[in-house]
Amino acid sequence: MRTVSATRYVTPLREGGSLPAIVEADDDGMYVLKFRGAGQGQKALIAELVGGELARAAGLPVPEIVFVELDGELARTEPDPEIQSLIHASDGLNLALDYLPASVMFDPIVWQPDARLASSVVWLDAFISNVDRTARNTNMLMWHRQLWLIDHGAALYFHHSWDGWRDRAQDRFAMIKDHVLLRFATRLREVGPELSAKITPQVIERIVNLIPDAWLSGDEQFANPAAYRAAYNEYLNRRLQAPQAFLEEAIRAVPV
User: Which residues contact 104 (CB under 8 A, 6 or more apart)?
Assistant: First the structure.
């Protein structure tokens, strides 16, 4: 993954609870920055990174994800005290997605994805336990007439409390019933094995290894970043093992 440096804070995106923002970087690109110092902290960035790259490995459309070095001095030009505090608290390494200009939020009334794409997105979100792809907050964009997945920061919610995480890898994820694309997801039995085959142990390890050491801290049961990575690897691999309870739950939840 690439690392860029933020050179200009452009504007906040107040639709998000953690105040993501559009920033310009030293490669002249524009990015939607997710702040490490926001309320959800570094674990939201881990979920964004891992969830987004797993989606990409599954062949789903996700904007490029980059690391962003943020200098707290950028806060000096911002008049809003809340934004100033957020920038200062996020000094250092953060995460961002490529900004898709003129994109619009996905509306299931206006756009209806085909069954295969919808089933693939539902399978992914059930796999990574993404609670935040509902009609209230779809976290998908339409850009150049294509659906793009954004904002996976609410996924992998198990890592906010690691107690019993091995057993929780078999969670059925009942909240999939609220997924905005569920009614279109009529090919889950077909796409499930195909996507599982794409997300190999080697792919999982490569993605987990992208997590910066500095974000892997704060849980007493893990002695070092390597121990965290081993746990993420084991959890995700356990979750893919057959029979996939999350897949069966999603199939059961599809409206008849």
Answer: 141, 142, 143
pLDDT at 39: 83
pLDDT value at residue 15: 63
Tokens 């050179």 identify what position? 7
Name the residue among 167, 232, 245, 247 with its Cα closest to residue 201.
232
Pairwise CA distance, residues 37 & 18, whole Å: 9
DSSP 39-63: TTHHHHHHHHHHHHHHHHHTT----
Contact 54, 65 (CB under 8 A): no
Residue written as tokens 């997590």?
211
Pairing between strand 65-70 and 30-34?
Answer: unpaired
Cα–Cα dist 76/21, whole Å: 16
Q: What is the pLDDT of residue 14?
A: 66
What token pair was written down for 42? 């570094």
The pLDDT value recorded for residue 64 is 98
Q: Which residues of the chain have pLDDT under 50?
A: none
**Hey, how many other C-beta atoms are within 10 angstroms of the C-beta on 251?**
19
Cα angle 207, 213, 217 (rounded to 5 degrees) comes to 110
Of 122, 101, 236, nearest to 189 by C-alpha is 122
pTM for the predicted model, two decimal places: 0.96
- Mode of pairing for the β-strands spanning 21-25 and 92-98: unpaired
